[in-house]
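hey team, just a heads up i'm posting the complex here instead of the shared drive bc the drive is being weird again. everything in one block, sequence lines first with there labels, then the predicted structure for the whole assembly after. its two chains so it's a bit long, scroll down
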Amino acid sequence: MNITLNNRPESFDKNQITISELLKIKNFTFKMLVIKVNSELVKKDSYDNSLVKDGDNVTVLHLISGG
Amino acid sequence: MTFEEIKSRLKNYTVGIAGAGGLGSNCAVALARVGVGKIVISDFDVVNESNLNRQYFFRDQLGEKKVIALKNTIKRIDPEIDIVEYDIKLNENNIVDIYKDCKIIVEAFDLAEMKQMLIETCLTEFPEKPIIIGSGMAGYGESNSINVRQSENLYICGDEKSEVSDDTPPLAPRVGVVANMQANTVLEILLGME
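-- predicted structure starts here --
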């Protein structure tokens, strides 16, 4: 499948993956993230069961301490 | 627009700020100086010596509640501005009541967990409200790495990478850049509304 991740095209072998799998494959190591799939917020407690499919537009935002 | 036109338009708006530390205190002062009519601000902390390297407080305010000290400072700039302050630790529940009447919400927390909590709460409860967050501003230099990124109603100000540590503390210049960038984004949105 092909998706857009933070405005860049990405390809994966599988037809769908969970958000948790996506984060692992793409090495997102920051703990505090905000994730949107096609403009809809995916809350942190549903990363394991929320699916990313072909054509999805995924935004992953790192939140960094300091202020 | 002349400054008088800008000020007369901003006077009708309410802006919410979540946190009165480095980001919140500087952003609030910038918004007050240009004439935003009403500012709702929350923080549970008191002014500490360690805050004075970047936060808009003064030595004679040490020990005061941050929201009270900030309100007093803003009143010295413009007594006409309506400041609604909450001496409270924000959470998923009280955010909704405190900020429901704000046109825009500025995220001005220190900790990433709090930033995440506020964003998830606001995107769920107030999907139509613009949220301006600050993320990544530790250390000094690299001014050009700080920018604004928009994802629908979410605006991210900062370099999105520099984390606070013993060797990269938060300091007045870069925290101030991000706080004022947040204030600038607020103006851009408010003045673009009809």
